[in-house]
Backbone:
């Protein structure tokens, strides 16, 4: 069986990546990795659904026993990708989505060179700022820190293979899926298939 693909989605906080990924998983067949974090749950978030919420000590012990593929500090908290789920799903041929920030994305690409790196952005910065403010869950201080982090992240956009603008949700979701489908159709990812077809032809024309 062909191995599944690792799809890394990053983007500015407030760019709507969470909504895009939720819709992508509803509409198409993807496995979504759930990260561990030391951040407090926002209203409506539950442990094991949006994140595995951990204390700093618990998070550090995950790092110690190599339980995370990657981890990073974002604003004032730690975030990391649990190893087992990702490795099991890929081995089972599933396409796995990681929604992580840029340091984590670079770290994943170094370990999995075939990972597909996609950066999602709003069409402009006013839209980004307004989304952060209207979310209502963040203090002014946190919004300012997230905007500052966005400015840093903008410099890493060029390390991504695909930049997708989230203006219309369905268009954005379909664009992300098309990227993954096209990658899967590349001949490098079809070697087993091509050998199989040639063998079948050889059998038929004997
Ligand atoms: P939020 O607090 O808004 O849920 O997430 C803050 C940032 O952390 C987002 O950019 C999100 O993509 C990133 N993030 C979430 N999970 C992980 C992870 O497992 N690893 C890394 N490196 N970043 C993550």
Residues:
């Amino acid at each position: 069986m062909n191995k599944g693909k690792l799809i890394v989605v990053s983007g500015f906080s407030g760019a709507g990546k969470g909504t895009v990924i939720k819709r992508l998983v509803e509409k198409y067949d993807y496995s979504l990795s759930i990260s561990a974090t030391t951040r407090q749950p926002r209203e409506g978030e539950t442990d094991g659904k949006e994140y595995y919420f951990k204390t700093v000590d618990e998070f550090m012990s995950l790092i110690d026993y190599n339980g995370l593929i990657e981890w990073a500090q974002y604003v004032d908290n730690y975030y990391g990708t649990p190893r087992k789920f990702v490795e099991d799903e890929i081995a089972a041929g599933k396409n796995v989505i990681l929604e992580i920030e840029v340091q984590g994305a670079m770290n994943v690409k170094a370990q999995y060179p075939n990972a597909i790196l996609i950066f999602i952005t709003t069409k402009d910065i006013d839209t980004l700022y307004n989304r952060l403010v209207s979310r209502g869950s963040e203090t002014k201080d946190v919004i300012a820190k997230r905007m500052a982090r966005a400015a840093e992240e903008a410099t890493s956009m060029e390390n991504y293979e695909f930049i997708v603008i989230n203006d219309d949700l369905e268009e954005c979701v379909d664009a992300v899926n098309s990227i993954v489908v096209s990658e899967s159709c590349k001949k490098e990812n079809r070697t087993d298939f091509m050998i199989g077809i040639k063998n079948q032809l050889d059998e038929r024309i004997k």
Observations:
- Residues 38 and 58 are 9 Å apart (CA to CA).
- The longest strand covers residues 68-74.
- Strands lie at 6-11, 31-32, 35-37, 51-53, 68-74, 77-82, 96-99, 116-121, 162-165.
- The helical segments are 17-27, 56-64, 83-91, 102-111, 125-135, 140-154, 169-185, 191-204.
